[in-house]
Specification:
- This protein has about 120 residues and is α+β, with helices and mostly antiparallel strands.
- It is about 30% helix and about 45% strand.
- The chain has two helices and five strands.
- Strand 2 and strand 3 form a beta hairpin.
């Protein structure tokens, strides 16, 4: 049996904040996985960030790139707070998984874009 301890991040179009979970995923068979949810929370976004994210589709390329980076740095700080609050042993985390923040979504055209730079995170 293989198992993986994952911190998961999700930020939806509601812009209410960053959802953070800490889970263990365990492979039971070739096609069967189980998971244990150890802790979860939503850390609210400050009002100024909500305003910026609502307007990001009208930003310049530079502003978009900067927000991509700055959002990832903020998320990293939020994850650090979550880890400390929940007394999670860093050496036992296998990965941090993030969907990113959707800023453009036109499935009818096959276009979707998320920000929250994984490398910076």
């Amino acid at each position: 049996m293989s198992s993986f301890r994952i911190i998961g991040l999700m930020s939806g179009t509601s812009l209410d904040g960053l959802d953070i979970t800490f889970c263990t995923f365990s492979k039971k068979s070739e096609q069967n996985w189980d998971f244990d949810l150890h802790s979860a929370t939503t850390i609210p976004y400050p009002d100024h960030l909500i305003s910026q994210l609502k307007e990001i589709m009208h930003a310049s390329a530079w502003e978009l790139i900067k927000m991509d980076h700055d959002l990832a740095i903020l998320w990293a700080e939020m994850v650090s707070q979550f880890i400390k609050k929940n007394d999670i042993d860093l050496s036992k985390i296998d990965a941090v998984a993030s969907h990113g923040q959707t800023i453009f979504h036109r499935p009818d055209l096959g276009i979707t874009t998320q920000i929250g730079n994984g490398q910076a995170l």
